[in-house]
Amino acid sequence: MQATLCFIGAGNMATSLIGGLIANQYPAQNIIANDIDSLKLDALQQQFSIRTENQLHAAVANADIVILSVKPQVLQQVCRALALAMPANKPKTLFISIAAGVRATDINRWLGGDLAVVRCMPNTPALVGLGASALFANDAVSDLQKQQAEQIMQSTGVTVWVNPESQLDAVTAISGSGPAYFFLFIEALQNAAIELGLNPQTAALLARQTALGAATMALGQDVARLRQQVTSKGGTTAQAIASFESANLSGIVLEATRAAEKRSQELANQLASDTQ
Prior knowledge:
The chain is an alpha/beta fold and 276 residues long. The protein has helices at 12-23, 38-48, 56-60, 72-85, 104-111, 143-153, 167-176, 178-195, 200-218, 223-229, 236-246, 249-271; strands spanning 5-8, 31-34, 51-52, 65-68, 94-97, 116-121, 131-137, 157-161. The radius of gyration is 22 Å and the shape is elongated. The mean pLDDT is 95.
């Protein structure tokens, strides 16, 4: 893929995507970053030797793909500005939004309508190249554009496609918010270790390395089988698992993810308003 990419917004997620693309030998001269913060643009230019532009019209003039990497609360404003800035005679541009919670139909409307829009739900491990992103494409997106969107997002981890778009609310509850769940569990395990008499440094090291090792083992494996393999009948692990089950851990997780999904739907409805 040699398309010209333009990132609108130069925050952490844009930086991780640009870094992933460059690491995968994507031509730096084919990447443009736009942001109102000139310091962020200078940092990106120095780090990756990409092109930068603080004027929106100039940034998107030759872009084949525009990646919307701004905060959800300002996305409507940015899209309406883009609708005025995009060249009128340019072939159909692909827009990829990584702004959480904003539906593709609303993005398409704010941009002027009848446009190719891919909505993506990434997660923060993309910052270390271990992201999990779900994508949804509207009907205007071609097969080639889907491949392009997938290639961009795969620069920071794995990707999956979902349809209908409403499934992105479930994705938000699982992989979007999911890293925080694991951080919470690691934190709880650290605190438990301290209560059992270990010093804080040892507790932190053991909890974090155990999480890393377990996650690495889980890649490509049946996690239920892995759990069974390390749970000897009548042993210490079995006792701990029984305690989790008596507290209805599975039910707690389901209730939490349903709450996150519901909140994702609520936020999408709020962000869809044209009165912002």
